[in-house]
Amino acid sequence: MPLYKILADYLPEAILVGDSTAPVYAGNHLVSQPVPRRYFNASTGYGTLGYGLPAALGAQLARPDLPVVALVGDGGVMFTLSEIATAVEARLPVVIVLWHNAGYEEIRRYMDANGVARLGVDIQAPNFLTLAEGFGCPGMLVESPAELANALDNREPNGPLLIEIDAAAWQKNLMSPGDNNEE
Ligand SMILES: Cc1ncc(C[n+]2csc(CCOP(=O)(O)OP(=O)(O)O)c2C)c(N)n1
Ligand SMILES: [Mg+2]
């Protein structure tokens, strides 16, 4: 997945902390960190939504010397979104990568696969960039690996950065030839 290639290229030392969301399920099969304690998440076991962001803040407090990335979905992040305020207040430079696929994709997928009518999975997400700005956290919308790379180049040294990935646009860009990604 180009997401992890970009993260490895730009933040090779980073601790990747995940919630229970699509890119984290992929990462469980794809990510191979050079040393222990650089990749953990809540996608297995109880799979508790909302874990990723506050756990990333904890990782950043424990290892101020390393970059920390929180991998969260548009559904799960809503459980603990207010932790952005904590990151701003404590000046924690966590990079929040928010995979926005407009709903509870994991549950939606199971419903569709089993012929169950969708119920409660096409959730109305807020404008995350506006909310982040309200907390005093800069945010960027990205639609391709090249834009992600650019966003990582602009991360903040003294506070969090929200990078929202438009999942539909990202996947379309990966599939259509002639776009700006070389993966
Ligand atoms: C507290 C809690 N409620 C419900 C669930 C069930 N659940 C697991 S994944 C998921 C969808 C999460 O949506 P999102 O964060 O947007 O990730 P996506 O699957 O869309 O990538 C849900 C509702 C859970 N794991 N934890
Ligand atoms: Mg989602």
Low-confidence stretches: none
Q: Roughly what is the average pLDDT, rounded to an integer? A: 95
* Strand elements, count: 6
Bound molecules: thiamine diphosphate, magnesium ion
CATH topology: Rossmann fold
Q: What is Rg? A: 16 Å
User: DSSP strand (E) fraction?
Assistant: 15-25%
Overall number of domains: 1
Assign the CATH class.
Alpha Beta
CATH homology group: Thiamin diphosphate (ThDP)-binding fold, Pyr/PP domains
What shape does the CA trace take?
globular
Strand order of the largest sheet: 2-1-3-4-6-5
Helix count equals 8
Give the CA-CA distance, first to last residue.
9 Å
- Reading the helices and strands in chain order gives HEHEHEHEHHEHEH
Q: What does the model show?
A:
This protein is an alpha/beta fold. It is 39% helix and 16% strand. The protein is built from eight helices and six strands; from the N terminus they run αβαβαβαβααβαβα. Bound molecules: thiamine diphosphate (TPP) and magnesium ion (MG).
